[in-house]
Design a protein that fits this description.
This protein is α/β, with parallel strands linked by helices and 230 residues long. The protein has eight helices and ten strands. Strand 1 and strand 2 form a beta hairpin. Helix 1 runs parallel beside helix 2, helix 3 packs across helix 4 and helix 4 packs across helix 5.
Amino acid sequence: MSPTVLVERSGHLAHLILNRPEVLNAIDNDLGEELGAACDELAVDESVWAIILRGAGERAFCAGADLKARRDFSPEQWAAQRAVFRGMFKKMRTLPQPMVAAVHGFALGGGTELAMLADFIVASDDAIFGLTEVSLGIIPGGGGTQNLPRLIGRNRAKELIFTARRITAAEARQFGLVNHVVAREQLLPTATMIASDQAPSTTSARWRRTRCRTRCRSDSRRPTTGSPSR
């Protein structure tokens, strides 16, 4: 069986690739465990200065959790999967290297949540984002309810979460979720250019990411005074 996560290195860049294209790179237990293990490997690899997160295949970055795989889960299996997913998201969130998400096609549910863990999001013009699991009565479990308001403002985030609405790449750029929107053929070159610009050395790259994340999290806790939500 093919690995569900690939790690490809190019110089000081690592490509972290979700590799279940036949199911739109949906996340199951195997992918969750393999992505966590890949993060463990990359976190201690001082030859890797930056990471590009992307999905295999033509149709999707990641369509979220594999709902078909969990259709007949017992309560114990649900609990086990929650633990796997929680560990996966934590390891993604704490990677020391700068990370660029290169998003094409569908990025729904956990796919949007994975992209939001990157420091930069580059989207192809056919990308679709959304925390759509809410429409199935499932609360976003990968930090989406925290990270989306930090990125696009509380009021817009509430609208997208409460309605489970999908948004285009252009809307995501307008809202501030995405840094750049490019044609599909320019997606990987643009993400590579941004990743390559991040790190003249491992030490400074990791220091910058830690500093930036600490500052952003600190800012997100400060009360706002009269500034409207984006």
